[in-house]
Amino acid sequence: MKRLSFLIFLILCIASNWSGNKTETPFFGYWLEETGADQKFVQGLILYPDGTASSIGMETLKYEKWTVQNNRLILSGKSIGNRQTIDFSEEWLVIEISPRTMKLKTSDNYWRHYQRTEKMPDLKK
């Protein structure tokens, strides 16, 4: 009887997690840009549930916020360069979003492919 009760409890827990995940946005998390095997660096972004964002491995492009509107991911932040800091905003058409991958495209046909990771990556490859 104990095993049956435990099995029913386990099934209910799994089912509640699955149904909860359906309502959550798939955008939250650590996303690493797919680069060639010869690349010596890691870059990407972190999208937090509260709408804030951070850059991974990009010292001159600091993401601060994100939102999704009409199947478009909008990222904004600060571009830091030659003694000046400029506010910026990028708009990406979401081509694909899944628990493991995200594919984005700009209006001028520039693509970015990301893989989700569970934690902050080691920035030294």
Characterize the overall form: globular
What's the helix-strand series?
HEEEEEEEE
Q: For the record, give the distance between the C-alpha atoms at the N and C termini, rounded to a whole number.
A: 52 Å
% residues in beta strands = over 45%
Please describe the structure with a list of short key phrases separated by commas or semicolons.
125 residues, alpha+beta, globular, Lipocalin
Q: What does this protein look like?
A:
- The chain is of the alpha+beta class and 125 residues long.
- It has one domain: Lipocalin (Beta Barrel), CATH 2.40.128.280.
- The protein contains 1 helix and 8 strands.
- Strands 3-2-1-8-7-6-5-4 form an 8-stranded antiparallel beta sheet, with no helix packed on it.
- The protein is globular and about 40 Å long.
- Residues 12-24 have low confidence and may be disordered.
Layout of strands and helices, then pairs:
Elements: H1 2-23, E1 29-33, E2 44-47, E3 53-56, E4 61-69, E5 72-81, E6 84-97, E7 101-105, E8 111-117
Short structural description:
The protein is α+β, with helices and mostly antiparallel strands and 125 residues long. The chain has 1 helix and 8 strands.
